[in-house]
From TrEMBL:
One of its GO terms (molecular function) is amidase activity. Its EC number is 3.5.1.4. Residues 10-440 form the Amidase domain. The keyword Hydrolase applies. It comes from the Bacteria. Keywords: Hydrolase. It comes from Kribbella sp. HUAS MG21. The keyword Hydrolase applies. This is Amidase.
Length: 467
């Protein structure tokens, strides 16, 4: 816990900050009216000598596709907005509460985690409206964990939870100048999270610092590891880091310059950089889309079956709802991804089985072969392009990303703020093989420490337009 205030006072302070700042950013879609009461109860526990752990009394914001039994869970869709709250908390929320965290509220997201239509704009949902980037209010916050990233950047909370299928934690982390950690798929339980794909989905921390992300992962993960123990110094003299070039670079000159500076800092920490490597283009975009489409139909139906009677139960139900409410739901982009998924034929389909194997090999073979052949501990590359202008008519203008290989493989990565390009935050992505979170956290913390020592604290947002 970074504040010396009692939890109830900290919650009051953050609630005031949300009232003051969030009308500009629109990151929090559902505040928790019971947050102060919960915080006061936790303060009383502390006063009685009962401290549940390092995050006792810490306020946390949760993405609005994660079930909370006391607050709505909508995935940004009006189809779920009038439904009662889910019957129980998601597994990750139960773990947060057990650790003494206060659920401060729910954050807006790209509707259905950016998997309804291909021309979507990150940060927009029919339920929550449009989330904006605190560093440039006319620029994208990224997605789909848009509100979680923007909220942490705006100082509405220091801890938030996002989810990722392909880039949905690391993208908004990079664009908003915060830390985003996407764990290995399966390390964090997915029960009670609105799904896209059981092969690629995971929840993960979004925080101000690497150590905060490590503390949150220690609560969320299945393995009872204290990841903060691996936030050590800056000595990386026994570490070999690979630097894939190729398509992960070259889409922003300013970003490349910031990333070269990041490589210099890692080298100063003693790391051996193995540069100019080639990570094969994952390809298989059609295979990945086949996998996501098939799994969405099955996984989402299973999730919807847990919600209150009378609500949507299938993709066909959601498609029909959106058509009926097209003036609100379909005003900016369509639902062709939903329609494609609804037409799939189940997880026994030969098309699905073949696509899943191809996608898995594309991700795992590319990463693991590169690590093994070069005796590497991790890989580094630019995270995402600087934030693009919001364009609700045409959708996102993403110039490049670092997440696809890890998404296909189900492998972890972490994005750490590396600098700014024309005042817009950018990040450095550190990635590795399955269950390599200990290594990634160690490297990320060392880089973060070295960057702050060299350049000072990361600049705070000014909530202005960017021209």
């Amino acid at each position: 816990m970074t504040s010396t205030l009692p939890s109830a006072a900290l919650v009051e302070e953050l609630q005031g900050r949300i009232r003051e700042v969030d009308p500009l950013v629109n990151a929090v879609c559902t505040p928790n009216p019971a947050a102060r009461t919960e915080a006061a109860r936790l303060d009383a526990e502390r006063d009685d000598g009962r401290v549940r752990g390092p995050l006792h009394g810490v306020p946390v914001l949760v993405k609005d596709n994660i079930d909370t039994a006391d607050l709505p869970t909508t995935a940004g869709s009006l189809a779920l907005a009038d439904q009662p709250p889910p019957p129980q908390d998601a597994a990750v929320v139960r773990r947060l509460r057990a650790a003494g965290c206060v659920i401060l509220g729910k954050t807006n997201l790209s509707e259905w985690a950016n998997f309804r239509g291909s021309a979507s704009s990150s940060g927009w949902s029919a339920y929550g409206g449009l989330t904006r980037n605190p560093y440039a209010l006319n620029r994208s916050p990224g997605g789909s964990s848009s509100g979680s990233g923007a909220a942490v950047a705006a100082g509405l909370a220091e801890y938030a939870i996002g989810t990722e299928t392909n880039g949905s934690i690391v993208c908004p982390a990079a664009l908003n100048g915060v830390v985003g950690l996407k764990p290995t798929v399966g390390l964090v339980p997915q029960q009670g999270i609105v799904p896209i794909s059981h092969s690629q989905d995971t929840a993960g921390p979004m925080t101000r610092t690497v150590k905060q992300a490590a503390a949150l992962l220690s609560v969320l993960a299945d393995n009872q590891t204290d990841y903060t123990e691996y936030c050590l110094g800056t000595d990386l003299s026994n570490v070999r880091i690979g630097v894939p070039r190729g398509p992960l670079w070259g889409y922003s000159k300013g970003l490349d310059e910031v990333t070269e500076r990041a490589l210099e800092l890692l080298s100063r920490c003693g790391a051996t950089l193995v540069d100019h490597l080639s990570l094969p283009t994952p390809g298989g975009d059609e295979d990945q889309l086949q996998v996501l489409s098939h799994e969405l139909k099955v996984d989402l139906a299973a999730y919807l079956a847990t919600r209150a009677p009378g609500g949507p139960r299938t993709l066909d139900d959601l498609i029909a709802f959106n058509k009926k409410h097209a003036d609100q739901e379909l005003q900016w982009f369509g639902q062709e991804l939903f329609e494609r998924a609804a037409a799939t034929e189940g997880l026994d389909s030969p098309m699905y089985v073949a696509a899943r194997l191809t996608a898995l090999r594309a991700g795992r073979d590319g990463i693991d072969n590169l690590l093994r052949d070069n005796q590497l501990d991790a890989l580094v590359c630019p995270s995402y392009s600087p934030a693009w202008a919001i364009d609700l008519v045409n959708g996102d203008h993403v110039l490049g990303s670092s997440s696809s290989h890890a998404a296909l493989a189900g492998y972890p990565l972490i994005s750490v703020p590396s600098g700014t390009v024309s005042g817009l935050p950018v990040g450095l992505t550190i990635s590795g093989t399955a269950r390599s979170e200990v290594t990634l956290i160690r490297l990320a913390h060392a880089f973060e420490t070295a960057r702050i020592a060299a350049d000072g604290p990361f600049p705070t947002p000014e909530f202005t337009q960017w021209v």
